[in-house]
């Protein structure tokens, strides 16, 4: 994304985390005086990571240090109903804290890195650094870059605007299922989860061990009339304690095979937009839970042939 303007090299970095925002701090630069602009606000926001500020490091593509600055987090959240950031790449209903750094640099090629810091100015234990190499800054233009941290001369100047985003993985609130069954039983498994940043969720259920299933897990709608009290239990899981997230759930139906011990794994991924489709934030941004299930011998002591098709 390019924004036209004066010959600015604007480094604007958004870093999202549950942290406070204080006055802007400018660190030393080895490239002489550099003019910068930003918002200096004081705002107290309690979150679930140790990030309080972001360090911005800019070097030329030849490795020469250019700029090192520290910025506190803003009191706003992205995308924050700003059209330019909605679904590109953050989902419009999500809420991510961020930091922004804008600075003027010479036209050229730059390596840009963000390092999340805690309140003591040390590297964050919760959020990883992020970087982008070979960022081109052109004369008379501002280059804006968004970096996502995973909770896992004489000529006129151009501008580089770098955005760094912190993302938190989903949280599984509950897994509802019948633990003890009879061989060949049909079993429904419902997974309840939320995302601290309010990102959309994708659910997956897979078998890890045990006899072969007569039918693999498939997604189904929630049955409110199943008579086992699951409805009120699920509704209870929807209430409170979820930060910016809204609880979501997905049910699966499967059919057990022969009697024995089974183990399943439920996984939940948070999603973002990549063009016109939604993709996971990354392999590490997920919540997983393994759980057992048991099947005893049926009255007739046998199971249908494994290849018998399962009626829909």
Please sum up the structure shown.
The protein has one helix spanning 230-237; strands at 2-4, 36-37, 53-60, 65-72, 77-78, 96-106, 108-117, 130-137, 141-149, 157-166, 171-176, 180-182, 186-194, 201-209, 215-220, 248-255, 260-274, 277-280, 286-296. With 312 residues, it is mainly beta. It folds into 2 domains: 2-166, no CATH class; 171-296, Immunoglobulins (Immunoglobulin-like), CATH 2.60.40.10.
Keywords:
mainly beta, Immunoglobulin-like, 2 domains, five-stranded mixed sheet, 3% helix, disordered N terminus
Please provide a written account of the structure.
This protein is mainly β and 312 residues long. It has 2 domains: 2-166, no CATH class; 171-296, Sandwich (Immunoglobulin-like), CATH 2.60.40. Helices cover 3% and strands 46% of the residues. It has one helix spanning 230-237; strands at residues 2-4, 36-37, 53-60, 65-72, 77-78, 96-106, 108-117, 130-137, 141-149, 157-166, 171-176, 180-182, 186-194, 201-209, 215-220, 248-255, 260-274, 277-280, 286-296. Strands 1, 2, 5, 6, 9 and 10 form a 6-stranded mixed β-sheet that branches. A hairpin with a 4-residue loop joins strand 3 and strand 4 (65-72). The two termini are 48 Å apart.
Chain-wise SSE layout:
Layout: E1 2-4, E2 36-37, E3 53-60, E4 65-72, E5 77-78, E6 96-106, E7 108-117, E8 130-137, E9 141-149, E10 157-166, E11 171-176, E12 180-182, E13 186-194, E14 201-209, E15 215-220, H1 230-237, E16 248-255, E17 260-274, E18 277-280, E19 286-296
Parallel strand pairs: 9-10, 12-19
Antiparallel strand pairs: 1-9, 2-6, 3-4, 3-7, 5-6, 6-10, 7-8, 11-13, 13-16, 14-17, 15-16, 17-18, 17-19
């Amino acid at each position: 994304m390019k924004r036209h303007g004066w010959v600015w090299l604007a480094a604007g970095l958004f870093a999202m985390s549950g942290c406070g925002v204080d006055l802007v701090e400018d660190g030393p630069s080895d490239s002489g005086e550099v003019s910068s602009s930003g918002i200096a606000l004081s705002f107290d926001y309690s979150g679930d990571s140790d990030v309080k500020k972001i360090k911005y490091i800019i070097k030329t593509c030849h490795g020469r240090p250019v700029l090192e600055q520290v910025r506190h987090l803003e009191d706003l959240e992205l995308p924050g109903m700003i059209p330019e950031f909605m679904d590109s790449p953050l989902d419009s209903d999500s809420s991510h804290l961020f930091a922004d750094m804008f600075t003027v640099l010479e036209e050229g090629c730059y390596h840009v890195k963000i390092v999340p810091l805690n309140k003591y100015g040390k590297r964050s234990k919760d959020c990883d650094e992020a970087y982008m190499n070979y960022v081109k800054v052109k004369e008379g233009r501002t280059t804006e870059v968004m970096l996502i941290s995973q909770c896992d001369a004489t000529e006129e100047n151009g501008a580089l605007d770098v955005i760094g985003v912190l993302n938190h993985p989903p949280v599984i609130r509950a897994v509802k299922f019948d633990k003890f069954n009879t061989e060949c039983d049909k079993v429904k498994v419902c997974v309840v989860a939320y995302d601290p940043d309010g990102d959309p969720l994708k659910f997956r259920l897979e078998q890890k061990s045990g006899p072969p299933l007569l039918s693999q897990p498939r997604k189904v709608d929630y049955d409110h009339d199943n008579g086992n009290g699951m409805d009120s239990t699920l509704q209870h899981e929807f209430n409170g304690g979820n930060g910016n997230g809204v609880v979501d759930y997905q049910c699966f139906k499967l059919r057990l095979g022969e009697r024995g011990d089974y183990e399943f794994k439920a996984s939940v991924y948070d999603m973002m937009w990549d063009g016109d489709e939604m993709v996971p934030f990354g392999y590490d941004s997920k919540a997983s839970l393994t759980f057992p299930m048991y099947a005893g011998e049926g009255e007739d002591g046998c199971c249908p042939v494994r290849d018998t098709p399962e009626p829909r």
